[in-house]
């Protein structure tokens, strides 16, 4: 499939215009576009602009509210609930993390849940919001059933990602953003779109057998067996059970035949002021030492160097900021005004 490079600023503008054309406000369109282009810049194309056709189709089916009245209910000095009113998940999550950051700056910690939300894209964007303010950021969100539990034969939990961002003084923050499945479902979609095989430890068919043809997909596998299964459940407990949102198989599917059903997803955000727990200067110095120690470690055979979590994505972003983001010609045709 033919690809071409598109500059990130141009791609952002295309996405904004596409959202606005579907009835989304200019401000909300800009937030959503920023989240999507962020994912593409970091090479997480499965959570980038390839999702635009789905969002636009869902808006057309009234499965997303383009004029939401989002509300914040403070439930304590460090806690709050954001009601997204079925708006774009990117915008709901941005509002929730912004409020968590505000609370953390005032009171040391901000713990905010979001309800009545939808797919929010790459979580790294939101935890990085906290790191940019010198705070630790944590986020979790649940998704519809795609992952077979350890020892199970059918999907029950979603890919249920979690993300963490730790400021590192004058160095780039350490960012961990990962699904609790073997991979994110978007990578299955990406493989189908590109006509590429997948590794046999990613997914199984209806019989529970490993597959390499993504078209035979029935369920993803949890990463690390029982450990990934347990962490996936924890994410659902935080972002679903704790928020009063649907969990497991009771979450409406993203790619349903009927896109008019609103998904009511839950998110959980945490922002932490480092200075309330330890000396901020000592923290920064210790982080720098850890980064230097790991970077200086001799690599194991077959590896060029030891990299930090999020470092491959950061390096890819530097390249794509300079050269452009590779997109298929059909996606470019869809997005270009």
TrEMBL record:
InterPro entries in the record: Mal/L-sulf/L-lact_DH-like_ah (IPR043144), Mal/L-sulf/L-lact_DH-like_NADP (IPR043143), Mal/L-sulfo/L-lacto_DH-like_sf (IPR036111), Malate/L-lactate_DH-like (IPR003767)
A GO molecular function held by the record: oxidoreductase activity
Superkingdom in the source lineage: Bacteria
Keywords associated with the record: Oxidoreductase
Pfam family of the protein (one): Ldh_2
Tagged with keyword Amino-acid biosynthesis: no
Record carries keyword Hydrolase: no
Segments traversing the membrane: none
Family of the protein in this entry: Belongs to the LDH2/MDH2 oxidoreductase family.
Annotated protein name in UniProt: Ureidoglycolate dehydrogenase
Record organism: Paenibacillus sacheonensis
């Amino acid at each position: 499939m033919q690809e071409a490079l598109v500059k990130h600023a141009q791609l952002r503008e295309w996405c904004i215009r596409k959202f606005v054309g579907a009835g989304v406000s200019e401000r909300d369109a800009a937030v959503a576009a920023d989240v999507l282009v962020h994912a593409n810049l970091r090479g997480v194309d499965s959570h980038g602009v390839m999702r635009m056709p789905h969002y636009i189709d869902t808006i057309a089916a009234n499965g997303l509210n383009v004029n939401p009245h989002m509300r914040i209910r403070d439930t304590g000095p460090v806690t709050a609930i954001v009601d997204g009113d079925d708006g774009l998940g990117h915008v709901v999550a941005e509002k929730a993390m912004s409020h968590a950051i505000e609370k953390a700056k005032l009171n040391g910690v901000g713990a905010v849940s979001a309800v009545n939300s939808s797919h929010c894209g790459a979580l790294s964007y939101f935890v990085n919001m906290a790191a940019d303010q010198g705070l630790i950021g944590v986020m979790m969100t649940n998704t519809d059933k795609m992952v077979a539990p350890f020892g199970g034969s059918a999907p029950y939990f979603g890919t249920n990602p979690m993300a963490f961002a730790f400021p590192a003084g004058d160095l780039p923050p350490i960012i961990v953003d990962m699904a609790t499945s073997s991979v994110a479902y978007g990578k299955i979609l990406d493989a189908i779109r590109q006509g590429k095989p997948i590794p046999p430890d990613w997914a199984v068919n209806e019989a529970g057998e490993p597959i390499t043809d993504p078209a035979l997909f029935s369920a993803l596998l949890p990463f690390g067996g029982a450990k990934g299964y347990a962490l996936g459940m924890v994410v659902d407990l935080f972002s679903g059970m704790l928020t009063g949102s649907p969990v497991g198989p009771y979450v409406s599917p993203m790619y349903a035949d009927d896109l008019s059903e609103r998904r009511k997803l839950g998110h959980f955000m945490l922002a932490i002021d480092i200075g309330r727990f330890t000396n901020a200067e000592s923290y920064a110095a210790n982080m720098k030492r850890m980064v230097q120690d790991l970077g200086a470690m001799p690599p194991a055979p077959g590896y060029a160097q030891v990299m930090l979590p999020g470092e491959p994505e950061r390096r890819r972003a530097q390249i794509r900021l300079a050269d452009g983001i590779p997109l298929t010609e059909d996606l470019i045709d869809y997005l270009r005004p």
